[in-house]
Structures are given as C-alpha cells and as structure tokens.
Amino acid sequence: MKRSGQGTLHERVAIRFGTTLTANIICRIAGFFSNIAIARGLGVGSFGDLNFLVASFAGFTALIDMGASSAFYTFLSQKRRSRNFLLSYALWLTIQFIAIASAITWILPNSWVHEIWLNHSRENIFLAFIASFFMTQAWGSVSQLGEARRKTVWVQTFEVIQSVTHFILVCTVTYLGRMSLRVVLGLWIFEYSCISVILAPKLIAHNLDSSILHLEKTATILKDYLTYCRPLAVLGIFTFIYRFADRWLLQRFGGSIQQGYFSIAIQFSNVCLIATGSLIRIFWKEIAEAYQAKDYQRVQRFYSQVARGLYAFAAWSSCLLIPYAGSILGLTVGLTYLGATVSFALYLLYPVHNSLGQVEGTFFQAVGDTKTITKISVWTLIISLPATYFLLADRSALVPGLGLGSLGLVLKMVILQAGSVIWTALIIARMNRWKFQEMYQVYILAFFLSVAWICKVFATGFLSHFPSVASPLICMATGVTLYLALSFLSIYMRPELLGVDLEELSKALGGLRNAFRTREV
C-alpha cells in the first residue's frame, strides 16, 4: 500500500486531511466573521432574504444536475480521463447555466417569478443564481479536479485566498457603509469566478491522459453517465422539492425574520462540520480507488474509522456550543437575533448526524451504488415535505399547521436526519455483511453533552461567588476551558471514542504534523 516517496496510505491520508483541516479552520474563521459582519450589516430580515435566494438555487442545481457532478468526480477519482471526457462535462455545465439564466431573465412570466421567489426582483434573483452557480458548480468542479489527483494543497490554498479576501472586502464594504444584498452577491461572484478561472487550466492538465484520447468516444461517455445518473436523476427531483420547499415554506409562513433566525443557526452549526468538510473528498477518492481495486478490507476499515471519527468530532464541537447558545448570539450578531436562541441550540445537534449522512451518501456514490442511496433518500424526502408543512403552516391556513417557524423546521431536520442516518447505516452493514455497530452514536453524544452541561453549571456556580467578574463571557470562557480539558483527557484515555487505538492515533497525529512540512501530496 505504498506509493513511491509518499509513505503509507495512513500517512498520505493524514497529510491531506491535515492540510485540508488547517485550511478549513482558516476558511471557517474568516467566513464566520464575514457572516457575522453581513448578518449585522443587513439585519435579520435582509439576511434572511439573502439566504433564501441563494438556498433556492441549491434546489434548482440538484434538479438540473441530475447527479452528473457526482459521476464526474467518481470517474475522475478512478483514473485520468481524455480531453473529450472533460469537454463533455464542461458542455453540461454550460447548458445548465444557460437554461436557468434564460428561465429567470425572460422565459418565466412575472407571476411565476413572484410566486416562486415571493416578490423578489428579477435582478436580485439573477445575481443570486450567478453567485450560487460559481460557488457550487464552477468552483465545485475545479476542486473535484484537484482532489481527484490529490492536489489538496492547491485547492485548499485557493480556498484560503478566497475566504481571507472575502473577509477583507466585507470589512471594507462595512466600513464604507455600502453593505447591501446585491453587494454581498457581487462579492461572491467576483471571488469564485476569479479562483475558478485561475486554477482550472492547471488542474485540467493534471487530469488529462493523452494516451486514451481516441478511446473515449462521446457515446461511451454518455452511456457511463446515464448508468450512474439514472437513479440520481429521480433523486434530483426529490432533492429539489426538499431543499426548495423547506426554505419556501419558511419564507411563506414565517417571513424574512424567521428565515434570518434559521440562517444564522446554519452559519454557526457549520463550524461543527470542519472535520467532515476536510475529509469527505479524500474519503470519496480513497473508497472509489479501493473499491475499484477490490480491496474490500481497506474499504471497510476506512469507512468505519472515518464514520466514527467524524461523528465524534461533530458531537464534541456541537456539545461545546449548545449550553451557550443565547450568549453566543448576543455577543456576536446582536440582541436582534436572540429570538433564534432555541432554534440555534437545537440546530447545533444537526451536524452530529449530518456528518454521518455525508459519509454514507459519499460511500454509495464512491462505489457506484446510486440506486440504493436514491431509494433511501426518496423515502426520506417523501416523509420530509408533509412534516415541514405541518410544522410551519399557520394555524389559520386551509390545511392548518403548528406555525412553529424556524423552530419547526429545525425540529424536522434534526429528527429526520438522525432516523435516516441510522437506517442507512443498517443497510450498508447488511449489504456488505458487516457487523452493525452504531450504538456508539448514543453514548458518544450523551457523554459530550453531559460533560458540557456539567462544566457550564460548575463554572456558573463557582463564579457566582465572585459577582464582580461573573459576566456571561467569563462564565462561558471558564466552562469551555473545563470542557476542553475534560474532553481531551477522556479522548487520550479512551481513544476508542474516535474509533482508533493509541497506535493509530499516534500515526494520525504524526501525519498531521507532516502536513505543515509537505507542499504536495
């Protein structure tokens, strides 16, 4: 399992993960403060409108993409491809852009536009589409080109450049008093178009195999895509309904304020997915390659360790924040967002099982089993839509609901996510004849959550004897420090919490240290 000059698989993965994790931490810090500035500058309502417009196109992208992006990355991860293969996918992206842009600008009648985007202007809708396209489709494809050839350092360097640049530009716009919805969308378009155009040519060259130029015919490429994407095309329809309906119903029944509450909860909870975002592309690449080589033992071991490790990290980071939900909102985005406290605290549980959900979905796509993940996802989405309506609809609606606003949407997402993840884990275990070992989810989450609350109660009680220093910030800092100390000590004494033993943990840490000394993996 060695590659010349590169070390073992464990070391190579650890180095790439360390590089990605380091870059992600920088990106998340810069992005966090950028979003705080945007949330404060726009206010709750406009911040909700911004996120509604961008999120609406996440649904449209899933509808029109039909799984082609997943197929593209899976095929690239297996081996280098011909120029014809890359050109075919570039053409597909162009068709997507033209189709949606044409629909927004002149095909859809005004009445449809106003009903779909709830009276937002065509100009704002069009800008939101372009921003969404460059952030997800354009840059997403470029980063796939990099990760498929293990050019992690290149991809993450440009991610850091974009995040830091965005933070500087947002601060500049805030200082000049020019913060607006259109300005924020314009910044995203400028930043992601620049890094995509600069990096794409180099990564395309690294993915080309000139020796197969005449062996990959368009008809063969199309057949491979159709085989892979046929089940995902159905999933794309349901994913579109799910993603768009959630945000549309919240905007329709809750309004921009509730949309803003929900959006700020997402911004904070994304911090808990740093490790997942850092490892998921690496996981995809390694599983696809191992499965192609029929190394099923490596597939099982890598899947088990990644799933458990990412779940533990997400649970640890979520539980760190949950007891201080109200204080965090008040100290960062301001008192106007305190109405989101309960939604925020509950939504912090979402990344815990979402980390596993990403691992499971990626596993199915990496091994090419798109039929099974489609069936699971479709049934989940069928349950999701009526649940969303019932929790969000007004009590006075034709079909009355509970009118819970952002809290209702969060409740649905957390409960449905957990159920779907456990169900999918059982299916993966049965299909591969693995032993079902998912009880770790219960005790890991319960352990970290208990430690977090105990630390908060102890810190608050102790500092209550010193009223001159017992501010919310000091209480939170003390509780967090205690939590960090106790949780790290627990992981050191019981590394099985992360699904590894002491020797494997030592190797992983060694690989992470090498990440700071390695320029190219």
Can you characterise this structure?
- The protein is mostly helical and 521 residues long.
- 80% of the residues lie in helices and 0% in strands.
- The chain is globular.
- The two termini are 15 Å apart.
- Mean pLDDT is 83; it is low at 1-7 and 515-521.
Keywords summarizing the entry:
521 residues, mainly alpha, 80% helix, disordered N terminus
- The multimeric state of the shown protein is single chain
Taking pLDDT < 50 over at least 5 consecutive residues as the criterion, the unreliable ranges are 1-7, 515-521
H/E topology pattern: HHHHHHHHHHHHHHHHHHH
Query: How confident is the prediction overall: mean pLDDT?
Result: 83
Helix content: over 70%
Shape: globular
Largest sheet: none
What is the number of E strands?
Answer: 0
Question: Structural class of the helix and strand makeup?
Answer: mainly alpha
Distance between the termini: 15 Å
Radius of gyration: 23 Å
Q: What count of helical segments does DSSP give?
A: 19
Strand content: under 5%
Layout: helices, strands, pairs:
Layout: H1 9-65, H2 68-78, H3 83-107, H4 110-116, H5 122-148, H6 152-176, H7 181-207, H8 218-253, H9 255-269, H10 274-292, H11 296-321, H12 325-332, H13 341-347, H14 350-366, H15 370-392, H16 406-432, H17 440-463, H18 472-493, H19 502-515
Provide a concise account of the structure shown.
It is built from 19 helices and no strands. The chain has helices at residues 9-65, 68-78, 83-107, 110-116, 122-148, 152-176, 181-207, 218-253, 255-269, 274-292, 296-321, 325-332, 341-347, 350-366, 370-392, 406-432, 440-463, 472-493, 502-515.
